[in-house]
């Protein structure tokens, strides 16, 4: 495998670098983080630059691109200190293209071109986190209408995105496998209540508890086939995990760059921090982890582009990169000392934000479960 950048990829990354360095300083992202403000100016500029819908067909306003190019862009955004975890427009469009209706795809594309993801994914419930089979939000039918009732929690973007994609159980269904259906819901509709949850990170996007009380829908609001909601969502899980691995890689590189710069400048006991062996050991180990992350992310992207299954490599990659990024960023904070723990450095933001990658998109424990199951299955068939 040759991961040398093509001329097109180099131009794309150069353009991205210029955009962020010119128009979006660290002060901008720091302010958005401190005030819990959605960085719509950045996201609009990102989409307007042509990079927001990479990999989406041209007829929907997208730009054809292989998966390796897509992860390179996510990595670079995060490496420059921008919140790459918010770049989910392409993921949402990809899902809608997989199972949405013609009108739902068209509406999603129209919204996506503004830089905002078309919908917030509403699956998690108080009793249903990793175990999606415990979802208790129900849908029932009466007089030609559909009614949703239940509670969702930890719904990212519930206040920022125009719609929600709600997973609900058929109230009369007895077979868990075929019970779940996806529904397109307007958060401002009657019967929908949103209450903010307060997190330690990801402050630039809302996270809400959502209550659904007899929310009235039409049959046309169903997304995908009835009873196949969970199957529809699983289709893109492997891709989503690769995306998470890519932006955690970039965040680790950002922290590493800051740590090296500080180690070259900070003087203690008449030496720069970089002259102390303990600092050198940290930097060396950080560099090894970043190289491993980079090779893993690129390899899985290459497999995807070759049409190979990433059912095993994607969760393994996400598991390793999420953990390694947290370790790299923590070591960078240790090198910065007290200043790194303060809000005066972006390390504290990277540290808070990156921790979510070990929970969202599937916890570390679920990644182990999925990966081990595939490993055992593969060896059983040999």
Helix count, DSSP H or I runs of 4 or more residues: 13
- Give the end-to-end Cα distance, rounded to a whole number of Å: 26 Å
Determine the structural class based on helices, strands and strand pairing. Answer: alpha+beta
Flag low-confidence runs: none
Largest sheet: 8 strands, mixed
Helix content: 40-55%
Record field, number of beta strands: 10
Strand residue percentage: 5-15%
Order of helices and strands: HHHHHHEEEEEEEEHHEEHHHHH
Assembly state of the chains shown: single chain
- The residue-averaged pLDDT reads 94
Shape: globular
Integer-rounded radius of gyration = 22 Å
In short:
The chain is α+β, with helices and mostly antiparallel strands and 382 residues long. The protein has helices spanning 7-23, 26-35, 40-48, 67-79, 89-99, 102-112, 229-234, 237-265, 277-305, 313-336, 338-341, 346-355, 364-380, and strands at 119-122, 138-142, 145-156, 163-170, 180-185, 192-196, 207-217, 222-223, 267-268, 271-272. The strands form two sheets. Strands 1, 2, 3, 4, 5, 6, 7 and 8 form an eight-stranded mixed beta sheet that branches.
């Amino acid at each position: 495998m040759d991961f040398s950048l093509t001329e097109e990829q180099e131009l794309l990354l150069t353009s991205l670098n210029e955009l962020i360095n010119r128009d979006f300083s660290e002060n901008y992202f720091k302010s958005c983080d401190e005030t819990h403000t959605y960085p719509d100016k950045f996201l609009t500029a990102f989409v307007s630059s042509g990079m927001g819908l990479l990999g989406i067909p041209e007829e929907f306003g997208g730009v054809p691109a292989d998966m390796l190019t897509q992860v390179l862009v996510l990595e670079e955004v995060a490496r420059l200190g921008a919140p790459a975890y918010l770049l989910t427009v392409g993921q949402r469009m990809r899902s809608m293209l997989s199972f949405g209706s013609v009108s739902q795809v068209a509406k999603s594309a129209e919204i996506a071109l503004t830089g905002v993801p078309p919908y917030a994914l509403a699956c998690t419930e108080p009793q249903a986190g990793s175990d999606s089979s415990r979802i208790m939000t129900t849908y029932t039918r009466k007089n030609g209408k559909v009614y949703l009732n239940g509670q969702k929690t930890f719904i990212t973007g519930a206040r920022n995105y125009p719609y929600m994609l709600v997973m609900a159980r058929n109230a009369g269904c007895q077979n868990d496998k075929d019970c779940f259906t996806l529904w397109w819901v307007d958060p401002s509709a009657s019967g929908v209540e949103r209450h903010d949850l307060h997190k330690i990170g990801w402050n630039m996007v809302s996270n809400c508890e959502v209550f659904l009380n007899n929310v009235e829908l039409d049959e046309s609001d169903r997304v995908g086939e009835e009873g196949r909601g969970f199957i529809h969502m699983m289709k893109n899980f492997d891709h989503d995990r690769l995306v998470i691995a890519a932006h955690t890689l970039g965040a680790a590189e950002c922290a590493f760059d800051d740590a090296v710069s500080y180690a070259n400048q900070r003087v203690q006991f008449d030496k720069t921090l970089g002259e102390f062996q303990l600092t050198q050991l940290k930097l060396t180990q950080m560099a090894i982890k970043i190289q491993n992350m980079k090779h893993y992310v690129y390899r899985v992207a290459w497999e995807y582009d070759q049409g190979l299954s990433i059912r095993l490599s994607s969760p393994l990659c996400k598991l390793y990169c999420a953990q390694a990024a947290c370790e790299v960023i923590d070591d960078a904070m240790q090198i910065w000392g007290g200043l790194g723990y303060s809000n005066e450095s972006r390390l504290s933001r990277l540290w808070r934000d990156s921790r979510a990658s070990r929970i969202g998109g599937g916890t570390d424990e679920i990644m182990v479960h999925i990966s081990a199951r595939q490993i055992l299955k593969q060896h059983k068939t040999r």
